[in-house]
Amino acid sequence: MNNKIGLLTIIATLSSSVLSQSIDYPDSFNEPMQLFPEAMGDFHFPISSDNETAQKYFNQGFQLMYAFAKEDAARSFQASHLLDPECAICWWGESWAWGSYLNGAMTTAQAPRAYFALQQALSRIDTATPKEADMIRALEVRYVENFNPETRRTQDQEYAEAMAVLAQKYPDDDDLVTLYGDALFLLEERRGYRSLEDPNVTRLHSVLLSVLERNIQHPGACHLLVHATESTPTPELAAPCAKYLGNTIPGASHINHMPSHTWNEMGLWREAVRSNTLASHSDQKAAIGKGFAIYPTHNLTMLYYAASMGGESAAAIQAAKDLAKLNNNTAMLSLALIRFGRFDEVLEIDKKPSGEINLSMYDFAQGYASLKEGDIQTAKAIASSLRELTKNTSARFRFHDGKDIIGTMTGILEGEIAWSEGNLEAAANAFRDAVTYYENLNYDEPEPLPFSPRHWLGAAYMEMEAYENALEQYQKDLGEHPYNIWGLWGAQQAMNKLDKSSEDIDRDLNKAFSFADIWLPNTKL
C-alpha cells in the first residue's frame, strides 16, 4: 500500500501545475499517510470513487476534521485523491481541510493549498455526483486566489450562506447540515459567554440539534454542540450526545476529551476525569500508530483540573506531573500539590517555569508551602512580590488579564499569612480581595486555577463562627462549580453548625466521596 501511494505521489507531482510546485506543505506530506482502522469509528460518507481504499481514506479524513486533527485530515484526503486522481470530491476534502476551523483561522500558508485543491476539484467536477458538485461549488466563495486575512470574514459569510442553501437542499444529510453549523460557528466569537437570547446562538443550536435528533452519535455535530453550549446557562443541552461522543472516533484524543467540557460545566467531575484519561490513552497510542495525539497538553490540563475539583488527588497530581514533563512547565504541578496539601513536595520542585503568569503560580505555591512548613518570612517576601506584580503586570494568560490570576493567588497567600498570625479579620479581608479578582476571570476551559478562593473565605468564616456567611460562600461556589467536593463539604459543615440539613447536599457529598481519595479537615488545607 505504501509503495503504491508513493508511486502515485510521484506521478501526481510530475503532472502538477506550476502553481502546485510553488506551494509549501508541511514536512509530514513527504511521508505516505497510513490508514488507522483501530482509531476510526463507523463513520461513512459515500463518494463516487470506485476505489475502496480511496473511500477509506476519505472517511478517515472526514473524521479527523471532526476531531480537529487538521493536518492529518488533509493528508488523508490527499491520499484519497492520489489513489483516484480523478476523484473530484477527494480534492474537495483536502481543500475543505485547509480552511478555517473552530480553533483556528486559515493562515496565509494554508490558503494557497486550499485554493489549489479546490481548482483541482473544479477541473474534475464533471465526474462528480450532483451533491458532490454542489459541495465543491460551495467552496468557490470560501477561497480566493489572493487571500487577505483581514477580509476573511467576507468569504466566511458567503460560505455560510452557500452552506445554508445546501443544508436546505439536502436537509437529511447529517454531514452537510453539520458543515452548515460549522460555517455558522465560524462567524461567532470563539471565546466568552453566549446568551441564549442571541438569535445567532439559537440558530446554531437548532441546526446542530436537527442532526443529533436523527443521529445522537454524530461526532461532528456533537463536538460543535458541546462548544456551542459550554459557555451558556444550559451546557446540559449537549449531555445526551456527550455520553457517546468520546467513543465515536476511538483513537482521536480530542474527541475522547470533548465530553469533559460539558461534564465540567455540569459538575460531573468523575466523568470529566474519565474522558480525559481516555484522551491521554489515545495520545500515548499515537506513538505506536494506533491513535492521534490532538492537544495532549490540553487533555492533561483538563484532567488535572477536573480531578482537583472532584477530590481525586492521585489523578490530579499524576496528570500535572505528566504535563510538566510534556511542556516543561511546573506551574500546574505546583498548584495541584498545594490543592491537596502536599507542601513538602512543593518545596522539592526547583525547576521554575517560564512566563510571568506560570512563574507567579510557581512562586505562590512556594510561598504557601513555605508558610505551611514554618517559614513565614519567605512566605511574606513572596506575597509582597506577588502584590507588586498584581499592580504592575500587563501579562495575559490565555483569555485572562494576568493581574486577576495573580491577585487571586496573592489574596489567598496574604490571608493565610494573616491567619497564621492569629488575625482572622485580616485573613477574611484578604480572601475577599482574592474573590474580587477571581470574579473578573473570563470563561475558560479549564479555569486557570484548580481551586476557588471561596474555599478559603468560607473556611475563615467557619473559624470566625460566621456560619451563615460561610454557607453563602460555599453555595456561591457550588453555583459556579456544581458538585465540587470542597463546596459540598463546606456547605454541609456550615449547615451542621446552623442546625440545618440538606438531603441533596448529603447525597451529593456521599457520591463525591465515593470517587475521592482524600480526607478533608477543612476546605483550604
Fold and architecture overview:
64% of the residues lie in helices and 1% in strands. It is an all-alpha fold. It has a two-stranded antiparallel sheet with strand order 1-2. 52% of the residues are buried. The model is unreliable at 1-19 (pLDDT under 50).
List the helices and strands and how they pair.
Layout: H1 2-15, H2 18-21, H3 52-66, H4 70-83, H5 88-98, H6 110-123, H7 130-138, H8 152-169, H9 174-185, H10 199-212, H11 219-229, H12 239-245, H13 253-257, H14 259-266, H15 269-285, H16 296-310, H17 313-327, H18 331-339, H19 343-347, H20 356-372, H21 376-392, E1 396-397, E2 400-401, H22 402-420, H23 424-438, H24 454-463, H25 467-480, H26 485-497, H27 503-515
Antiparallel strand pairs: 1-2
Helix pairs in contact: 3-4, 3-5, 4-5, 5-6, 8-9, 9-10, 9-11, 10-11, 11-12, 12-14, 14-15, 15-16, 16-17, 17-18, 18-20, 20-21, 20-22, 21-22, 22-23, 23-24, 24-25, 24-26, 25-26, 26-27
| Low-confidence runs of at least 5 consecutive residues | 1-19
Tell me the span between the first and last alpha carbons.
Answer: 59 Å
Number of strands: 2
Spatial extent as radius of gyration: 26 Å
H/E element order: HHHHHHHHHHHHHHHHHHHHHEEHHHHHH
Fraction in helix: 55-70%
State the major sheet: 2 strands, antiparallel
Average predicted local confidence, pLDDT: 94
What's the helix count? 27
Measured by DSSP, the beta-strand proportion falls in under 5%
Strand order of the largest sheet: 1-2
